[in-house]
Design a protein that fits this description.
Strand order of the largest sheet: 1-2-4-3-5-6-7-8
Structural class: alpha/beta
Strand content: 15-25%
Largest sheet: 8 strands, mixed
Number of domains: 1
CATH topology: Rossmann fold
Radius of gyration: 18 Å
CATH class: Alpha Beta
Mean pLDDT: 92
Helix content: 40-55%
CATH superfamily: Alpha/Beta hydrolase fold, catalytic domain
Shape: globular
CATH architecture: 3-Layer(aba) Sandwich
């Protein structure tokens, strides 16, 4: 890893130890820091760990409590959301601001439908809803991925990941690739990856979470990059239809990892939204 970023991450890990809870027999690993009166719940994207969003934690922990989780092993996103509520109950947290990215947004999409009374302001970024053709392709991809050995799955992710680093400077590219390698080689396994894909699939297939169940809530911010290589413009537009009164921020470019590439702007956009007075 590039020295500066590596030192920053290692310092974060040293000062933000992983906490552990067993909930209904499932182990949850998470970071809880900060001393504010309000809590932000941060959920990263696929493969993400509790320290994936470490810079967001560092930026917000001065004024908020921040809860950042590693995804536990569930095949159903509904079960994960139920476990998440039990976790914040154990930590004595009544309501949270929610900040989700990609898979984290899928969790938020379910959370706002199952436990709306536990949420304050909600940020949903980098996500879309597949049409029937794309959903069929997604299911076929999961089927094939599940039949590969883990070494080949790792090779696939390492091959395609650099495509998401458009516009990154060389130092940041090296850090992101090194961090991905750390996640895959030292912390990851096939069971974890397949669990996360199955949770997204359940969200798509469960009619309870369909876009026809619109959420009439103006305390939601949706952020999307129009050149996101994971979600085309149609998929993004369909997702926005589920939130007719949401605040919308569309970016012409930035790709799937815009919130990392344009990190300062991303964090300040969230900060401004969290500080808005409720209508």
């Amino acid at each position: 890893m590039p020295c500066a970023q590596m030192n920053e991450l290692l310092q974060f890990r040293a000062t933000h130890p992983i906490q552990r809870q067993s909930i209904d027999g499932v182990e949850w690993n998470y970071i809880l820091s900060g001393t504010g009166t309000e809590t932000i719940l941060v959920l990263s994207g696929m493969l993400g760990r509790a320290d994936t969003g470490y810079r967001m934690v560092m930026n917000f922990e001065k004024t908020y409590r921040v809860l950042s989780i590693s995804y536990p092993l569930y095949d159903e996103i509904s079960a994960l959301v139920d476990g998440l509520i039990k976790l914040i109950d154990r930590e004595g947290i009544r309501r949270v601001h929610f900040v989700g990215t990609s898979l984290g947004t899928a969790v938020g999409h379910v959370l706002v439908r199952r436990y709306p009374d536990r949420l304050e302001r909600i940020v949903l970024s980098t996500f879309g809803i597949y049409d029937s053709k794309k959903l069929k392709q997604f299911k076929q991809f999961i089927y094939l991925l599940d039949r590969l050995p883990y070494w080949l799955i790792k090779k696939y992710f390492k091959l395609v990941f650099p495509n998401s680093l458009k516009g990154f400077d060389e130092s940041d590219k090296k850090f992101q690739i090194a961090y991905l390698n750390d996640l895959l080689d030292l912390q990851g396994d096939k069971q974890t990856i397949m669990s996360q894909y199955r949770m997204i699939l359940e969200m798509f297939e469960n009619p309870t979470y369909g876009i026809d169940r619109q959420i009439d809530n103006s305390s939601i911010l949706i952020m999307q990059s129009q050149d996101d290589e994971s979600w085309d413009r149609n998929a993004q537009a369909v997702f926005r239809q589920a939130y007719p009164n949401a605040h919308i921020r569309l970016f012409e470019e930035g790709g799937h990892l815009r919130e990392i590439r344009d990190e300062i702007e991303h964090i300040e956009t969230i900060r401004h939204f969290l500080e808005l007075k409720s209508a």
